[in-house]
Amino acid sequence: MTGDKDPGFRIGGRPLAERLTEVLPSLAKTVLAEIVSRIPEYGLLPAEELSGDITHVIEQNLRSFIDTLRTGSTPTREELDFLRESAARRAEEGIPLDIVLTAYHIGIQVVWASLTPDARPEEVTDVLAVNALTLRYLEVVTPVVGAGYLDERQTMFDDERSARHTLLSALLDGEPAEVMAGQAGLRMPPCYLVLAVSVGAHPDEEADGVDPLVAGRRKLRRLRVELERQIRGTVLTSLTPEGGVALLPHETAACDLTARDWAWLTRVLADVTRTAGADVIAGVAAAEPSGVPAAAGLAQDVLAVAIGSGRSAGLYRLDDVLLEYQFSRPGPALDRLASRLAPLDGNEELLQTLETFLRRGGRRQTAAALHVHPNTVDYRLRRIADLTGLDPTRLEHVALVSAALAARATIGRTRS
Length: 416
What we know:
Elements: E1 10-11, E2 14-15, H1 16-22, H2 24-38, H3 40-43, H4 47-71, H5 77-93, H6 97-115, H7 124-173, H8 178-183, E3 191-199, H9 212-230, E4 236-240, E5 243-250, H10 259-276, E6 280-287, H11 292-308, E7 314-316, H12 322-326, H13 332-339, H14 348-360, H15 363-370, H16 374-388, H17 395-415
Parallel strand pairs: 6-7
Antiparallel strand pairs: 1-2, 3-5, 3-6, 4-5
Helix pairs in contact: 1-4, 2-4, 2-6, 4-5, 5-7, 6-7, 9-10, 13-17, 14-15, 14-16, 15-16
């Protein structure tokens, strides 16, 4: 204690500190019973822990409180360190902080309930003073308990994050990861869905007067939280506000994935996009843990092709970009294909019309998208056919024109 003067509090005609000291063992049992009754999480603790560590903490807390009543002073550093260490143990056990703090308040409530029925009219002044001192005691103890708990949780979080990062690095590098997974307390799944992710800017990142770094971190946090909420098992990520890599555990082997699995993942990414508040586009490939490096490379390639070919936000597999992917491979055929549209170089109006026509699938739809008359579309398509020898309105030319556009986009990305 920081002082030794006895305030002389009396309730029921007796010195308060003396009275509580005499009943401390039974009072501790009453506090424990009340905590177990009102907080289910404590009731799930082993009986040995309840009768041992938890009871010891209750008794020590009661002694500290009684000393506060005896001296009018707040607990000593040694007493507070004990409570801090106790809170750290509760953090290790995974008991939520709000529940830990509630237990301390229940203890004080039990003490107070044991005293007030015996209070005499002439002791009202002492009762009010004890009430004020009780609040002061909680004011000192609560932050110490919270700090001890949060410090331990931060240490645990840092250790867990480090273990996850090590495991992610091992998987991406193709190193044996079973031992690292065990050290991290994780089970290796049959399959990882490997995502290469690109994240667009949130409106807040571009708003005047808003720190874009803070807005970006908030966006990233929302994205991670939603991804982990949707996925069963431990998600391994290396993400920045602009994107990165995510490994999603899946209980179905890569070779057994069905359209239903991919549809589910598409919905997950849509929810992540909505929660992040920014466009998210991802390439994905599935593999067993040993195949993660190759899957990550493929997912990155798929993502690059999807972005380069102007795809909208969403999830893309190799099957979704087969044509563009194939024509992203360098070689003489790629250059030859791109050269078929060389006569359109510099004519963005014709190129835009061609791309829109192939995407929309009709002259009227193209005209509506470009806000021009259908006759204008017809004229531009004839002009394209005259310049290139490829008529996008002829079925036998559509595949070649599409391939030439893909090759052109690939070469443009490479040169830029």
